[in-house]
Records
---
Amino acid sequence: MKTLEILPEAHQLVVKGNLTREFITANIERQSTRDLSNNITHINLSQVDAVDTAGLAWLLLMVENAQKADLPLKLVDLPEDLVKLAKLSAVSAFLPVQ
């Protein structure tokens, strides 16, 4: 069974596994938001296996929280499925992709 891990590593959050509704919980949202204040400048998505609209919403929440805290945040190594989903959802302009 696939899972979701969001691990802080050297100024980035590394997302591993399924960034989907099944695995995004309130606890993950709280922890990830707290991690932003620890000099996180990137969210690395290179190890994401699957993504859905809940995963996209989580990313938008992270971007919004970073902007509110005046923190520079970039998304790196987006999987093609996420890029397509963001375009279909008309939110790709809101994602700070590096």
Note: The domain at 4-94 is CATH 3.30.750.24 (Transcription Regulator spoIIAA).
---
Amino acid sequence: MSEQQQGPQFSIQRIYLKDMSFETPNSPEIFREEWKPQLKLDLDNKTTKLDDDNWEVVLTITLTAKVGEKTAFLIEVQQAGIFLAKGFEEDQLKNMLGSYCPTTLFPYARETIDNLLVKGSFPPAMLAPINFEAMYRQAQQNQQQAAPAASEEAQH
């Protein structure tokens, strides 16, 4: 590569499944119930700096289905990626790692979840796309609002 390449650089180094769990604690009885599940989706995103320019981003999706009071299934998938991010301002870097990278990982996690559900004899969840950019902005706003309140409490 040329030394003249100065601008920011971003690339996907690797995408991989870090961990997954699938439980059907009430099978086979749950298959005899009328299938009207209440689904609960939880998302988490964790970033770890590997070296100067490489970051691991782990998107954790937990999907729980209940039929009445009984848990039909519980799935947790940790979809991860290693991303090269070089030459970005701190705010840009945080935005890339907090919104763009999870957006990239989500389709892989969604496919894994649907495959697990089908193998478990459940219909696929077909999770709708998620706006990680909006979630990231909301988290940033919440942090900014919490910071003055925390410093105000510390002064009392």
Note: The chain has a mean pLDDT of 91.
---
Amino acid sequence: LGMHVIAYNRSQSQAAKDLGVEFVDLDGLFARSDVLALQMPLADFNVGIINKANIAKMKDGVIILNNSRGQMVVEQDLADALNSGKVAFAGLDVVSTEPIRADNPLLTAKNCIITPHMSWGSQGSRQRIMDCTVNNIRAFLNGTPENVVNP
């Protein structure tokens, strides 16, 4: 897409650096991102990381994507930022409580698309699951089970 990719990660991957990823601190990530995508496991340090204070550090018109965990976003703060135009768009595959509650402020926020926690489900991902399942059954029937959890 021709984007310059910047990232925050507590451990910086040489492979990512070799691909041209520039690692920055969190404040730098917030200040410089045109598109901010959350792609990390939930941990103590990132619960509520998308909040009023951090949104204020972001560029006007930033796009926020969350494919991680809903608890990383203070939903009312994001809804307020969307409604004011500070955040131009949000694409969310997760929310703090699933299934989503009728009173979630993101349901009525401007320029917000919410999908039902299924962004992993591309055709390629589903095909790999099916291939693995078929191979596991075939191996079991041949007396050489694979991916055994409890031998």
Note: The longest strand covers residues 87-92.
---
Amino acid sequence: MSETRLIGWPLVDLCRAPNGPRDRQLLMGEAVAVRGHRDGWAEVTAQRDGYPGFVPDAALTGGRMTHWVCARATHLYPAPDFKSRERAMLSLGTRLEVRGETDRFAKTPHGYAPRAHLAPLDVPETDPVAVAERLLGTPYLWGGNSALGIDCSGLVQVACLACALPCPGDSAEQEVALGYPLSEDAPLQRGDLLFWRGHVAWVVDPDTLIHANVHHMAVAYEPLPDAIARIEAQGDGPVTARKRLKAAA
């Protein structure tokens, strides 16, 4: 029987085994089902997408999340004072329990966060590309899910979840689960997704993509025809799917 807990650290690797390689990352406030414990590590399944792995026992906590970080990043402070020394940096997508508010700050169990960087969890975003664009310039990091580093599927997932659209963690599963297929001659529009073998990108407009990619080692814009030609030339093949997201119910 599993127990539901929350991530209490700003960012933690979801590892394949205790002290093993990173598969994905989890942010503060994300829920996990704990299936067991081993040598100071918890075997968990991420509630957001069913991704299994291990996190340190010390990274787990309890609570009730009410808000999320809607800015690219923010800081936690020990007091409602911008001149106080920050305690931690929090990434876009972090979830927090707000227990009170001042003019500029929200009080949480971990400290004070700027109100301007938070939004209620029950008010989803409507444009996933706009969410992805907040991470423009973020360094590429395989398995990354944060403003400190992110990969192609992480960029798709954080944008979808902000818009209340369920989303798997890996691009292969995203290709199957997200939206509905478009024909090769269908005009592309903002919010569509292009998939390759092992890669995914957002369509910003009919001529432009935004994606986290190794070529730029960052989240970057790229002309759509240039990206298609470059990816095929480097040996990763043609586009395997063009998908359009379904609106949230």
Note: Residues 67-120 form a domain with the SH3 type barrels. fold (CATH 2.30.30.40).
